[in-house]
Amino acid sequence: MLVTLALAANLDNLGVGIAYGLKRTSITPTANLLIALLYYSCRSSSQKQSHFEILLQL
Q1: How far is C-alpha 4 from the geometric centre of its chain's CA atoms?
Q2: Does residue 46 contact residue 39 with C-beta atoms inside 8 Å?
Q3: What is residue 24's three-state secondary structure?
Q4: Where is mean pLDDT largest: 37-41, 43-47, 48-52?
Q5: How far is it, in rounded angstroms, from Cα 17 to Cα 47?
Q6: Of 34, 32, 30, which Cα lies nearest the Cα of 42?
Q7: Residue 46 and residue 23: Cα distance in Å, rounded?
Q8: Which residues have a Cβ under 8 Å from the Cβ of 27 and sit 6 or more positions away?
Q9: Which SS3 state, helix, strand or coil, does residue 2 take?
Q10: How distant, in Å, are the alpha carbons of 1, 39, 40 from that of 43?
């Protein structure tokens, strides 16, 4: 299941990258930093939630 989700996310990113490349659209460093920060915050909050759920099961 996890491998399928990772593969789907990477294929989605590949499609977005190809579309932006074909349109010759570039992402500014500021926008890229904002995307990275949002991704990091969502990922870390989901990891904290899963660790909390594991603790609740003990």
Answers
A1: 15
A2: no
A3: coil
A4: 37-41
A5: 26
A6: 34
A7: 33
A8: 20, 35
A9: helix
A10: 18, 6, 5
Rounded distance, CA 26 to CA 45, Å? 29
Q: How far apart are CA 54 and CA 34, in angstroms?
A: 30
pLDDT higher at 15 or 49:
15
For residue 26 the two structure tokens come to 């570039």
pTM: 0.49
pLDDT at 57 exceeding the cut of 70: no
Which of 42, 35, 7 lies closest to 20 in space, CA to CA? 35
23: which DSSP letter? Answer: T
Confidence of residue 12 (pLDDT cuts 50, 70, 90): confident
